[in-house]
Every structure is written in structure tokens, then in C-alpha cells.
Design brief:
- This protein is mainly alpha-helical.
- About 65% of the residues lie in helices and about 5% in strands.
- It has helices at about 5-30, 40-55, 60-70, 75-90, 95-120, 120-145, 150-160, 165-190, 205-215, 255-270, 290-300, 305-320, 330-335, 355-370, 380-390, 415-435, 440-445, 450-460, 470-475, 485-494; strands spanning about 225-230, 235-240, 240-245.
- The protein has a 3-stranded mixed sheet with strand order 1-3-2, sandwiched between helices.
- The longest helix has 29 residues, at about 5-30.
Length: about 500
């Protein structure tokens, strides 16, 4: 008999239902809500956040967890119980008043940021951001006191269970040791290339239609999801109702399309999670790094491959039939999509310089949460690191500098490392997949089922039944190895 475990299942499915509503409300606030609804929506979201927190910390759970420890569970139930226990321990760390205060502060800061970023208003932003940082540091210290980790490690553990600052410092130091030289060599190689840069106007309607067609090719389930517009591209909603967004620039169809491909990777992971575990912590994505591995697998490993670009070229030519068709030759698109050029914006960065953007943010947020620096120091540190890593000056440019991302406005400290971890996982998954699947033939013939089947078998349907390292070892035969990422970059760009 597993009476206690069964009651835990029912309780966590109830939490999942409220989390579903919260996710859809969050998507609506970012994509559809009129600006005048911000204050009341923030209050409603804070109330819902508090309710979910109270359900997640119910005194009943402690007794049920104690009882379930001694029950005879199946292997899947044991994994499910492990994730329930982890969820409970994470939730009971914070007091109710801090959870509600953070939700209010984050919502207020994020909504104001949408306008302040465009106005380059760092001083106005800081009036809200100061409170977000203060409450996040308070949260980090409470978590650190309970876990014995450093404040930043305790926040990192929310997104990347088992990963530590010591590991990240080692991994990122390795990347910094070879990435600048590789970037320079590639830029020198590309300097002599001649290609046609898109310079015309590409209508939002045509970009949207092209994006929807590519999403269909990539297997997005439109019966359980949709595409919309937001100021910052994201994948939200739930596994059964997956909402992805992009942003459009009529002078540049490339970035919006790759944004769609990226978010479709996130969505396919969500839509591929096992239905029998829906509503349970064990049925959720393993970690944000694994989640990013799927979006970056779609965007970088598949979306920027020569074969995929050959598929994309005639589609783009058809959707932009009134534009200069020389732009849409496979060779020209390939040069556009693999162009390496250090720039301000992380989400628009090329594959090679992207890790520098992530490492910069990691180093700043690590020191911010650990109390080494103040939020007031961020612009100067940002500029210093942008000069060092990418040779770009951001003095006084907050819009395209330290105010460009949404993550810190939401208090999501500890999230940024997931992006580069994801790129490394994606390269390792592709190397392993190629041992079982002729990926080049699949892409050349646009028969992507074998690729998706491999991802489903090894990643998607595993959900959180395995811990991160076990998942990676099971899929590839070894733990995370940065060599695959470097090999991939050198192979594609040199």
C-alpha cells in the first residue's frame, strides 16, 4: 500500500493546476495585457503566488513525506517521491511574507522595465531594482543557512540542481582560455567572405508566416500551443498549452526566425514530457540547463546547419517574394546565419560570442548575490567585462547594456549559467545522436522523425526521473564534457 504517496500525488497535482493558471497569467502579462492592467495583475499574481506557496508548504506534506519514506514504491514512484521531497524542501525554506513581497517587487520591476529599457532610464529602473536585489539577497541567505551552500550556490541550485560555483568557475575559465582566440581566427577567416546583407523591409506578416511554417516542420503541436509577440522572446504556459513568443524587426528577419526556432526547441521539450507524469514534480523538465540544451539543439545544432539552411532558403524566398531574391540563396543565408560579430545584445548574439555574454552575467550576479558588489556597480562592471570579453563599450548605454535582459527584473538570479551549460549539453547530445542516427541525411531529406525520436527517448520522456548527471550519462555515455562544445564550434566555423 502507498497511501501516503498517493495523497502526495493528489496534493502536487492540485499545486500544478494553480501553477498552470499562474503560467498563463504570466504569459498574458508579457504578451497581451494592456499596460493599465499591470498594478491589479501584479496584486493578483502575488496572491496566487502566495496561495501556491502555502499549498507547497502545507504542514500535512511533512507528515505525508515521513510516512511515504517507509512505503513500498516502484522505481518511478521513488523518483517521483525524490522530486516531491526536493520541491517541499525548496518551498519550505522561505516565509510566506517574503514570497509575496518578492512577487510584488518582481512584477513591478519587470513591468516598469519594459518602458525604462527603451528610455535608457537606469536611475528610474534602480528605484524598483534595488528592492528586487534586496529581497533576492534575503532569499539567498535564507536558503544558504538551510543548505550550507554559499548564497549564490543556493540560488543556482533552484535552476541547476547539483551544480556549484566551483564547477562553473572551472568550466567558464576553460572556455575563456580558448574562446577569444577562436573568435579572432574565425573573424579573420570570414573577413574575405562576400555576402549580401538583408537591407530591405521584411513585413511582420511575412516573418510570422515563415516562422509558423518552420515551427510546423519542427513538429510544434499547434493543438497545444501558439506563437505570439513580446518584448523579450520566451517559452511559457504549460506542457499542454505551450506559449512561445518572439519579437520582430522589419529590417532583420534573421533574428526573429532563429528566436522562433530556439523557443520551438523549448516547446518541443515541454510538449514531449511524459503525459502519465503530468502534474507531478517528476514530470517536469530536469533543469534549466537541460531545457536550454533543447532550445539550443534546435537553434544551433539543427537550425544553423548547412542542410537546414538549404531547406530554409526557398521558404524564405517564397515568403519574401517582393524582396531581393539574391539574399535567399543557400550560400548567402549560410554566411548570414554563421556570421561572427561581437555585438551588444545577448539574444541576438552569434553562436561563438554568445558564451561571453553568459559568463559576464554569471560573474556579475554571482558577486551581487554573495554581497561582493552593489547593484549600483553593475553598469561599470558590465562595461568593463564587455570591453574585456567582446571589445565593446557600453558606457551610458543601458538599453543595450545591463538593462537588456528580463531575468534580473524577475529576481531570477542563478539562471544565466543555464544558457552556456545548455549549449555544451546540446553539442554533446548531437555527438551521441550521430552514433545512432544519420543526422545529415535526416536534415537533407527533412525527415526529422529519427532526430526527434532520439531526443524523446533520451531526454523528453525522461523528464525528472533521473538526476541531471545520470540523464547526461544515460544519453551520451559520459558526464558533461566541454570538449564536444569546442569541437562543434571549431568544426562549424573553421
Amino acid at each position: 500500500m502507498s497511501a501516503a504517496y498517493n495523497k502526495l500525488e493528489s496534493h502536487y497535482k492540485k499545486i500544478s493546476n494553480f501553477s498552470h493558471l499562474s503560467a498563463i497569467c504570466g504569459w498574458d502579462a508579457a504578451a497581451m495585457m494592456p499596460s493599465g492592467g499591470s498594478e491589479s495583475r501584479g496584486a493578483a499574481m502575488a496572491e496566487l503566488s502566495l496561495h501556491i506557496h502555502q499549498l507547497s508548504t502545507s504542514p500535512e506534506l511533512k507528515d505525508l513525506i515521513s510516512a511515504a519514506e517507509n512505503e513500498d514504491l516502484t522505481s518511478t514512484e521513488k523518483a517521483s517521491f525524490r522530486e516531491m521531497k526536493r520541491s517541499y524542501e525548496q518551498s519550505t525554506t522561505l516565509p510566506d511574507d517574503l514570497v509575496q513581497a518578492k512577487s510584488l517587487a518582481d512584477s513591478k520591476c519587470e513591468h516598469a522595465w519594459r518602458t525604462q529599457r527603451g528610455e535608457n532610464d537606469w536611475e528610474g529602473f534602480c528605484k524598483n531594482f534595488e528592492e528586487v536585489v534586496k529581497l533576492s539577497q534575503e532569499e539567498a541567505q535564507i536558503r544558504a543557512d538551510k543548505t550550507g551552500l554559499s548564497p549564490y550556490d543556493s540560488m543556482l541550485d533552484i535552476y541547476e540542481p547539483g551544480v556549484t560555483t566551483a564547477q562553473l568557475n572551472r568550466i567558464f575559465s576553460d572556455i575563456k582560455s580558448w574562446l577569444p582566440d577562436l573568435t579572432q581566427r574565425v573573424q579573420e577567416k570570414q573577413a574575405s567572405e562576400v555576402f549580401l546583407q538583408p537591407t530591405e523591409s521584411y513585413s511582420v506578416q511575412s516573418q510570422n508566416a515563415l516562422g509558423l511554417e518552420v515551427m510546423k516542420t519542427l513538429g510544434f503541436d499547434f493543438n497545444h500551443g501558439r506563437l505570439d509577440i513580446s518584448s523579450h522572446p520566451f517559452c511559457g504556459g504549460t506542457a499542454s498549452d505551450t506559449r512561445i513568443t518572439t519579437r520582430y524587426d522589419e529590417s532583420d528577419f534573421v533574428q526573429s526566425l532563429m528566436g522562433i526556432v530556439h523557443e520551438t526547441g523549448h516547446a518541443r521539450y515541454e510538449q514531449g514530457l511524459p503525459k502519465e507524469l503530468d502534474g507531478l514534480p517528476v514530470g517536469q523538465a530536469r533543469s534549466m540547463g537541460i531545457h536550454e540544451s533543447q532550445s539550443l539543439f534546435f537553434e544551433m545544432q539543427l537550425g544553423r546547419s548547412d542542410e537546414f539552411i538549404r531547406y530554409l532558403a526557398p521558404l524564405a524566398a517564397n515568403h519574401f517574394s517582393n524582396n531581393n531574391q539574391d539574399v535567399f540563396t543557400p550560400d548567402n543565408l549560410q554566411k548570414i546565419y554563421t556570421r561572427v560579430k561581437p555585438d551588444f545584445i545577448r539574444v541576438d548574439a552569434d553562436e561563438l560570442t554568445y558564451p561571453a555574454h553568459v559568463i559576464l552575467r554569471y560573474e556579475i550576479e554571482r558577486d551581487l548575490i554573495n554581497g561582493v558588489i552593489s547593484y549600483k556597480d553593475i553598469p561599470e562592471l558590465w562595461n568593463q567585462k564587455m570591453k574585456e570579453y567582446l571589445n565593446i563599450d557600453t558606457t551610458g548605454n543601458y538599453t543595450n547594456g545591463c538593462m537588456q535582459d528580463i531575468h534580473w527584473t524577475d529576481g531570477a538570479f542563478g539562471y544565466f549559467p543555464s544558457y552556456t551549460l545548455g549549449a555544451m549539453y546540446a553539442a554533446q547530445f548531437m555527438a551521441a545522436m550521430k552514433k545512432d542516427v544519420n543526422v545529415s541525411d535526416c536534415l537533407s531529406n527533412m525527415n526529422l522523425s529519427p532526430i526527434f525520436n532520439w531526443l524523446s527517448d533520451n531526454i523528453w520522456t525522461k523528464a525528472s526521473t533521473l538526476e541531471t548527471n545520470d540523464l547526461v550519462v544515460g544519453a551520451t555515455g559520459e558526464s558533461l564534457n566541454a570538449r564536444f562544445f569546442r569541437d562543434h564550434l571549431e568544426s562549424r566555423y573553421l
